[in-house]
Specification:
With 381 residues, this protein is mainly α. It has seven helices and four strands, in the order ββαββαααααα. Helix 2 runs antiparallel to helix 3 and helix 5 crosses helix 6. Keywords: Membrane, Transmembrane, Transmembrane helix.
Length: 381
């Protein structure tokens, strides 16, 4: 890229751009705005705030592209990538709709009531920024840093928060409908009264996050949460509590299927917590493992139905081989009676077959009782 005149900014984003390696849809851009001064060497948007006497909203507005040339910035209205707006007060006074603010420095910036709808804030740093009541509809926060940011009562519908860092962010009463939180780090984030209808929370880190009076619906997606890398018991404890919070939210909205899924994942996390703390031979761990493979932690019928089918078919096959009845169909009827009631009357002399009948009757009765337990327990959510 050619060197700009001395009175022009010349800030390029991204640095080290290689046209041969980058996607055709991605281009480097160069700022051609007028410099604050020749000593500073950069425009009001990109200059170091410590080197600028004043960074007022009016000065920022004067250095935006004229409306007649904005089409050249398509699909954005303004290219402000890499802007330095540390501590700048942009509260409700500057329209930044559809702007490109990738890799921008907005630490401690005041964006209260700001209109950033459709803006691209990929990899931007908004640590401690105030975004209270801001319009952040469809904003792309991919890989952005929002640690300790205030995002109260803001509109983040359809926002992309993929891989975003929201540690200790305050997001009370925020509208996250249709937002994508995949792999977002929301540890210790305050999400009280936030609206998660239609949102995607799969693989998000929600350890120690605060949930109270939240909204969710049938299209709120949580296949699983981020469950840590080192498998320590403390991490599994935090993960289990996060699943418990989500279970409560779904149960409060009558989403029993989703509540059951969160219950299963909560119990799994508790089982792995016991394993990490006391090893595989821990009684609690083994009991939880048995519960998983027999009753699906008390809410899933498929494991138990699988065992019931296996025992029934196994016993039927044995009766057929032993010749208890003349035909396979009659042996199947015999197995049904043995499985669901007391051992059927017979003149069996084969001790092995008698033992099989007693085992089938005992296990059949036990499993029918367990099936009733599961059916009743499923209605608790």
């Amino acid at each position: 890229m050619n060197e700009p005149p001395d009175n022009r900014c010349g800030y390029t984003w991204p640095e080290g751009y290689d046209a041969d390696e980058e996607d055709d849809a991605f281009h480097q851009n160069c700022c051609y705005r007028e410099v604050v001064s020749t000593e500073v060497g950069e425009c009001i948007w990109h200059a170091d705030t410590n080197e600028v006497d004043e960074q007022s909203v009016e000065m920022l507005k004067r250095n935006l592209a004229p409306s007649e040339t904005r089409f050249l910035n398509s699909p954005y209205t303004e290219l402000l990538d890499g802007s330095n707006l540390v501590g700048t007060n942009l509260s409700g006074t500057l329209d930044l709709q559809q702007t490109a603010l990738r890799d921008a420095d907005l630490i401690d910036a005041n964006l209260t009531d700001a209109n950033l709808a459709g803006a691209d804030l990929t990899e931007a740093d908004l640590m401690k920024a105030n975004l209270t009541k801001a319009n952040l509809w469809t904003v792309d926060f991919t890989n952005a840093t929002l640690q300790n940011a205030k995002i109260k009562d803001a509109n983040l519908r359809h926002a992309d928060l993929i891989d975003a860092d929201l540690w200790y962010a305050e997001c009370q009463d925020t509208d996250f409908r249709y937002a994508d939180f995949r792999r977002a780090d929301c540890q210790h984030t305050n999400l009280d009264s936030a609206d998660f209808r239609h949102a995607t929370l799969t693989d998000a880190e929600l350890s120690e996050a605060s949930f109270e009076s939240n909204k969710a619906n049938s299209t709120t997606t949580v296949k699983q949460l981020y469950e840590g890398d080192n498998g320590e018991s403390e991490n599994w404890d935090a993960t289990a509590r996060a699943y418990h919070n989500l279970k409560t939210i779904f149960a409060d909205h009558g989403l029993v299927g989703k509540a059951r899924d969160m219950h299963v994942r909560e119990r799994r996390a508790r089982r792995l917590e016991e394993k990490a703390e006391s090893g595989r031979l821990n009684r609690t761990y083994l009991g939880s493992l048995i519960s998983r493979w027999t009753t699906g932690y008390g809410v899933r019928m498929s494991p138990l139905l699988g065992w019931m089918l296996l025992i029934f078919l196994g016993a039927t096959t044995w009766y057929n081989i032993a010749g208890v009845k003349e035909t396979f169909l009659n042996n199947m009827f015999y197995s049904v009676i043995a499985f669901t009631a007391a051992p059927p009357p017979t003149d069996l002399t084969d001790a092995a077959t008698q033992i099989i009948v007693m085992i089938e009757t005992f296990l059949g009765t036990l499993m029918i009782v367990l099936l009733g337990y599961i059916l009743g327990n499923r209605e608790q959510f």
